[in-house]
Design a protein that fits this description.
four-stranded antiparallel sheet; 1 helix; mainly beta; 10 strands; elongated
Length: 102
């Protein structure tokens, strides 16, 4: 089995061909192709981690959709002062499918 560890959306993700992952928003429309730089490549028993060999490898994915994550509610409160503040946040995400490791 071939898989790679790629840096995507501020994190590292373990991907193989056909996987669907959700990462932080990347620019592009549905159907666009995105390339990632691998950090590690595993091909059966062979593990590739040297920078020179990894420069030859590209991991490509196709954007499926843009979506938003669950709402996170932020509450700030200070006792006895009457101060309270409520805020919400929804992270913008992208779902994509890995199409190739070459």
């Amino acid at each position: 089995m071939v898989y790679a560890i790629v840096r995507a959306g501020g994190r590292q993700e373990k991907v193989s061909v056909g996987d669907t992952i959700v990462i932080n928003r990347v620019a592009g429309e549905a159907g666009d192709s995105v390339q990632f730089a691998p950090v590690l490549l595993v091909d059966g028993d062979k593990v590739t981690s040297s920078q020179e060999e990894l420069e030859k490898v590209t991991v490509t994915g196709e954007i499926v959709e843009a979506l938003r994550g669950p709402k996170v509610r932020i509450l700030k409160y200070k006792n006895k002062t009457g101060y309270k503040k409520r805020q919400g946040h929804r992270q913008e995400l992208t779902r994509l499918t890995i199409t190739g490791i070459a």
